[in-house]
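U., I forgot to send this yesterday:
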Amino acid sequence: MSKKQQGSHKNEKINHLINEKSPYLLQHATNPVDWYPWGEEAFEKARKEDKPIFLSIGYSTCHWCHVMAHESFEDLEVAKLMNETFISIKVDREERPEIDSLYMSVCQMLTGSGGWPLTIIMDADKRPFTAGTYFPKQSRYGRIGMMELIPRIQNFWKNQRASLEASAKEVIEQLQQMEYTPGNEFTIDILDEAFKEASMLFDEKLGGFKGAPKFPTPHKLLFLLRYWKRTDNEQALVMVEKTLQAMRNGGIFDHIGFGFHRYSTDSSWLLPHFEKMLYDQALLAIAYIETYQATKNKYYQNVAEEILTYVLRDMTSSLGGFYSAEDADSEGEEGIFYTWSTDEVKKVLDEEDSSLFLKVYNFEQSGNFYDQATQEKTGTNIPHLKNSIEKLSNELSVPFTELNSRLEGIRDKLFSIRKGRIHPHKDDKILTDWNGLMIAALAIAGRVFEEKKFSIAAQNAADFILENMLAENNRLNHRFRDGEIAIQGMVNDYAFLIWGLLELYQTTFNESYLKYAISLNTSLLEHFWDEKDGALFFTPDDGEQLLIRKKEIYDGAIPSGNSVSMLNFIRIGRITGNVELEEKVSQINKAFSKVIEQALSAHTMFLSALEYIYGSSFEVVIVGKSDSNDTNEMLKAIHSNFIPNKVVLFVPMEEQSSEISKITDFVHYKESIDNKATAHVCINRFCKFPTTEINMMLKFLKICSKN
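Result:
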C-alpha cells in the first residue's frame, strides 16, 4: 500500500479479524469494514440482525484483492454502506480451499467466469444468490461499482426477498446437479486423443498452449513426457522442451533472483503477474528435472537448481517447512521490486558490463514493462532472453563459459542491489499440501542430481509436517502459522504429502517415510472415499457441512487430489501388493470419465495416472550393502534415467531383518548374488531373473545401455 493510500484511508479501529493467523485476514483487520472470519458467530449475527452476508474470498499475494481493498474496503464511504447492509466475512482461499472451491463454482455458474477477489452475496444459511469477482468503488466501463451494487442488494433484500430465495434455491439445485455421474472406464486410446488435443492447442511459435494469459501448468508437460516415453512420439518431447525453454527465457522467470512468477499475462511469456507461488516452484522443478532425465541436457538441471535455490533461500522457514507465496506488489505497485530502468543498471555496473547486460536481457530506454491499466510504458524493464545463452555466445563471439561467467557475476551484483529494495509481502503460512509438493520436488532433485542439500531440505520439511501437522489420531491439519496449527486437513493435504513421502523414501530409503505414506493413505480412504460412486471427496466425512460435499478432478494450477491419489494408489499398491488400491484407481477412472472426456487437456495429471496403468511399469528391488560403491552405482543408474512408472525398494544386506521386509512381502526371498548389489526387476508384475549387471538391469527397464 502506498503512503498516499495509507494516508487517505487511515483507520485505527480494528475488526474481528485481528486475532486471526492468516496473513490475508490480518491485512484486513484494520479496515473500517466490520469483517468477521468464517464461523458461526458471523452467521448467527446475520440471522439475528436479518442481514445478508457479504463473503469476500482472496489471498494475501493477490494483486486485484489489494486493488479492491484499497478502493473499497479501506474507504469509509463504502465501509459505512457495507456495515449497514451486510455481515461481512473474509476467507483466505489458501486456508479454506473447500469454501473457495464451492463458491467459485457458484460464481462460474452465475457469471460464466471466476477469479479473485471472489465476491459472494448469500444468506445466513450459506445459500448464495449473487456472485462476482472484483468490483470497483464506482461503476465504470460497464462494471457495476460497490456504491451502486450495495443499495441495489439492500433493496432486493428488503423488498424482493422471495426472488432472492428463489435464485438461491436454483443455484443449490444446479450445484447438486453438478455431481459427477459415473461413466465407462477409459481405455488406452484416450491417451492418443489427449495428445492430439494438446497438439492442436500447442503454440508452436512461443511454446505453451495458445492464448493469453499463459499459466505454466507443469503437469501438462509431465503427461507429455510420459506419452513420449511410451510411444516414442518425438513431437511430445518437442512440445515440452519448447515450452520449458520459452518460460525460462521469458519475463515469467526471475532472471535476477530465480524462481517463476505465477503466470504470463501475454502469449509470449514476457509480462508476468509477478506473485510467486510455492506450488509453481515445486511442479516446475519436477518438470525440469524429468526433462533433464529424458534428454540428459544439463540446461534443464540448471533451471531446476535455480528454482530450488530460490526456494531454499527465500521460502524456507527455520523450522523446516516452506512458506506459501510472495506478493506481486510492493510500495503499492505491481512488479516494482523486479523491474529496472536502464539508468539503474548503468549506476550499478561499469560501462562494459552494463552494455552487455542491457543487450542480452533486451532492455529498452523507454522500458518494456507496460502498465496493465493504461497500457503505457513505465520506463522500466523486465529482464528476459530472446535466445539461449549458447546462441548469444555465437552472436557475440564470446565463448559460452566466459559469457555465462560474466552474466552470473552481473546477476550477483544486481541481486545484491535488489536486496536493498522494499521487498514484496511474503505469506509465511505453512500449508501441508503445498509442502507435500515441494518435498516431492526436492526429494526427486536430491536423488537425480546427487545433491544432499536438496534431500536434507525435503527431510526437514517432512519431519516438520509429521511432527507438527499430524495428530495422534493419524489425521492431518492444513495450516501452520505463528505457532498455531489449525484447519482440518483436506484431500490435497493427504494426497500431496503422501506423494512427497513416497518420493522421499525412494531418495533416502528411510522406511519410516514409507510407513507414514501407507498409514496416511489408509486414513485418506477411511474419511474421504465415496463408497457409493467411488472417488475422493474434497472434505472429510466429519468436516464442516457446506451446501454440498464436492469432489474435484480438474487439474488446474495444481493437480487435483483425486489425480495425485490415483498415482499414489498405484505405487502403494505395487509396493504392498494391495490389489484393492488399483480397484480404487479403476473406480476413480469411471467416476469422472464423462466430465474428463469433454476436456482432456484439463485433466493431465489424471492422464499421467492412466499412462502408469496402461504403459510399462516396473517394480525394482535392490539388495545390497548400504553406501557401497556397487549399490550406489546401481541406484544412480536408475535415478539418472527417465523411468516415471516405477517403484524402487532397497533391502540392506547387513540387516538380518530389515524394516522394509516388515512393510511388504514383495521383498521376501530377494537376495544378493555373490554378495554383490543385485537388482530384481519386475515388469507389469512379471519378474525377470536377478542381475548384478547395471546394463542388464537397464535393459530390463527398457533403457539403452549407452545411457
